[in-house]
Amino acid sequence: MDYSKFINPHASQRNPSLIREMTQMLATAEPGTIFMAGGFPNPEMFPFESVDVRVDANIQVHLEGSALSAALQYQPTLGYPPLRDELKRLIYRDHKPPKFDDMDGLVTIGSQHGLSGIFGVILQNGDPVVVPQPVYSSALAIMDPYRPVYLAVPEDSLGMQPALLKSILDKWSSSNSHEQLPKILYVNPTGTNPTGAVIPTERKREIYQIAEEYDLLIIEDDPYYYLHFEEDDPVSFLSMDTSCRVIRLESFSKVFSSGIRVGFAFGPKPIIRQLELLTQHTVLHCSSLSQVIVHRILEQWGPAGFTEHTKKVKAFYRNRRNLMVSAAEKHLTGLAVWDVPRGGMFLWMKVLGLKDTYQMLMQRGIKQGIMLLPGKEFMPDRSITYPYVRASYSVASHDDIDKGEVISARTALSSYIYSLV
Ligand SMILES: Cc1ncc(COP(=O)(O)O)c(C=O)c1O
C-alpha cells in the first residue's frame, strides 16, 4: 500500500529529532557505548532511593540502583524496549495480524494519545471522516477543529451497520471527486463508548471489505477489548487485516490503571513512524516509570497471569452491568429504552417522550444531585437535539446505581411534563 496519500502535508514536513533517533539507537547499541549525545540528566541527582509497588503477595516491583535509574530516565520515543517487545508479543498472541512484519508499535500515553496523534498526522481541514453514530465524544473533540465532514454511520445494537456504511460511501463518492474521498474510518468496536455494543465478527468482515473497496485506514480504538461480556474474545479488525490498513489502539487504562497512562498503538510501519515523529516533538515518550512498572508486572504475571487478571476485570464489570440493567428495569421501564450492554462501562438510554435530554440533565439532573452525560455529546452533528443519556456503571456503588435510577426516573418524568407545558 502507498501510505503517502494518508499523511497530511504538515506531518510530511516533520523531520526526525536527531537526539531522539540516537536515544532509540542507544537501545540496541553495543554494550559499553559511551553516550554523550543526549541531554540525559544524571540520576544521582534524582531524589528517589527506591520505588516499591505491591500488586499482591506474589507480584511486587522493587526498583533501585540501575533499574531505578532507567525507570527515571528518558526512554526511546517508541517506548521502553522490554515493554514494547512484550506488547508486541501480546498483540501477536491475541490478534495474529496477517501483516505483523509490516507493522510496528509505539507505547502511547493511553489510547487518547494514539488517537490524537494518528488524527494529527492524517487529517486536513475539511476532510470527510467515517465515524459511527453515536461516537466516542473525545474522538470528536480531537477532530472538530479540523472542521471535518462527518460521514456518520448509524449504529444498531450490534454497532456500526455495514449496509449503511456502504450506501453512505457510495453516495459520497458519486458526488465528490477522488481527492475528496475519506481516508479514515474510526471505530471503537468492543464495548463501544457510549452504546456498549460489540461488533460481531461477520459484521467486522463486511466493514473491512468496504474499507478495502474505498481504501480507508481503519482506526480500531479498542480500550474495552478486555471488558466484554461475550462468551469468546472478539475477533479484531487487526486480525483480519490482510492489506495492512488497521491501526489498533490498545489501552491499559481499564485493566491496570487509567492514571498510569500507558497504551499501545500498533499499525502499518509508515503510519507508526509518523506517530513516532510527532511524539518525538511533543511529549517525547510515555512516562518511563509507568512503562517499567507495567513491564515488571506483565513479566511476573506472564501471559497466563495477565489473562487471569482480565477475566477478573470482565467478571467485575459484567456484575456491575447486571446491577445497572436491573436498576434500570426496576425504575425506568416505560420511561426509557436501552439495549443491554455487551461490554464496556456504559448504559445508553433513549428517554421516551422527550426531544432533548440536555436541559433535563444539565439543569434539573444536577440540581437533584445526579450527573449523567447528555447523548448530544456523542453525536457528530451537535446542532440538533437528542433524547439519549449515557450512564456509567463503572464506579457508582450498588446503592448509588439504584438511587441514580430513581432520580433519573423522577428527572425524566418531570422533564417530560415540563416539555408538555
Ligand atoms: C473509546 C475510547 N477511546 C479512548 C479512550 C481514552 O482512553 P485512555 O485512557 O487509554 O487514553 C477512552 C476513554 O474513556 C474511550 O472510551
UniProtKB/TrEMBL annotation:
What positions does the domain Aminotransferase class I/classII large occupy?
A: 65-378
Any one of the GO BP annotations: alpha-amino acid metabolic process
Q: Which GO-annotated molecular functions does the record name? A: kynurenine-oxoglutarate transaminase activity; pyridoxal phosphate binding
Q: Which cofactor does it need?
A: pyridoxal 5'-phosphate
Q: What keywords is this UniProt entry annotated with? A: Aminotransferase, Pyridoxal phosphate, Transferase
The record's section on Pfam families has: Aminotran_1_2 (PF00155)
- Family membership noted in the UniProt record: Belongs to the class-I pyridoxal-phosphate-dependent aminotransferase family.
Q: How does it assemble?
A: Homodimer.
Protein name per its UniProtKB record: Aminotransferase class I/classII large domain-containing protein
* Species of the source: Allacma fusca
Q: What is the lineage of its organism?
A: Eukaryota, Metazoa, Ecdysozoa, Arthropoda, Hexapoda
